Amino acid sequence: MNSRFAVIILFCSSIGWGLTWLPLKYLNDMGLDSLQLIFIAFTSATVVLLPWLFRQFSSWKSHTGFMVLIALTGGLANASFQTAIYHGDVIRVMILFYMLPVWSVLGGRLFLKEKVDKLRLSAVALCLSGAFVILDVWHNSWSGVNWIDFLALGSGLGLATSIILFRFTQTIPVMSKVSSVFIGCTVLTGLTLLVTPSQAQLPANNAVIFAGLYGAIWVTLVTLGTQWAVTQMEAGRSSVIIVMELVAAVISIALLTEKDLQWTEIIGGLMVLSAALLEGSRNEDTEQAVSMG
After folding, report:
1. Is residue 39 within 8 Å of residue 208, measured between CB atoms?
2. Packing angle of the helix pair 64-87, 34-55 (nearest 10 deg)
3. Does the CA dihedral 31-33-39-42 come out positive or negative?
4. Taking the CA atoms of the chain, what radius of gyration do you get in angstroms?
5. Angle at the Cα of 42 (from 39 to 45), degrees rounded to 5?
6. Is the CA virtual torsion 124, 127, 132, 135 positive or negative?
7. Whole-number mean pLDDT of the chain?
8. Does residue 237 contact residue 282 with C-beta atoms inside 8 Å?
9. What is the pLDDT of residues 224-269, one digit of tens each?
10. What's the rounded mean pLDDT across residues 143-155?
11. Is the pTM of this model over 0.85?
């Protein structure tokens, strides 16, 4: 296991996820609504990986139940995250999504018997404290919680569960598991479209083509990078590093929009980044000792 390389890949993939609001905003401006966009993007991503799914059939056919669970949890996580980012305030959605370290550390301890040492607890505490500072909970009321907030929380819980399932099913190839996630997201979004059909017509411009490219290239690469990397390290460790998404989102919004960063966002972002670096700097010997402890 090349732990350092996995950390680098996870950092890069997390930054990619943190910047997803850019193509989503662009495609929204071109006339695609959220369900249309997600369905087109993940259908395209599914088509890209289908050859690997069929080729690796013998490797996962005896684990169909786990593949279905991965499809449900990963599909729910992706559909909820993309919808929340599309409709909600990006920073708020990201913050609520980042209850992820709590779910992953708890799940890793309960289901994978991973050791939770003081360093990991410190990283999680620092991560969550940074998120609360960014949200400025001392001055903002939580009474305005809405459906977008629940989607953001649900996406974090779904991703944490899928990360645990990815680690638990090491004998199933990563490409097959990612294919399952894409299929799950496509099916869930498609069913939602059937139940609540979109009132918006598909735009006559190139939005559909761009949405397909977004799924086939951007979504596919960052998902493969993330899910491969999480199989190379403990669930608790990976969930803290993934918080780089929040930092990437905050910085990119500050640079590319007219929104000024508040001091709470600057300090909180630095706390979150410190937590990710603290966890990412653990060497393999320390991690193995923790796991054996």
Report:
1. no
2. 150
3. positive
4. 19
5. 150
6. negative
7. 81
8. yes
9. 998 888 778 765 667 667 777 777 887 888 788 876 767 877 787 7
10. 77
11. no
- What does the pLDDT read at residue 235? 59
- Residue 175 carries which side chain, given as an amino acid letter? M
Q: Is 33 exposed, middle or buried (0-12, 13-18, 19+ CB in 10 A)?
A: middle
Distances (CA, A) of 110 to 107, 113, 149: 5, 6, 26
CA–CA distance, 181 with 179 (Å, rounded to integer): 5
- pLDDT tens digits along 157-190: 888 888 888 888 889 999 999 999 999 999 999 9
Q: Could you state, in order of their start, the residue ranges of all structural domains in the chain?
A: 3-292
User: For tokens 């599309």, what's the residue?
Assistant: 86
Specify the higher pLDDT residue, 179 or 8: 179
Q: Which amino acid is at 201?
A: Q
DSSP designation for 261? P
Q: Are 122 and 278 in contact (CB under 8 A)?
A: yes
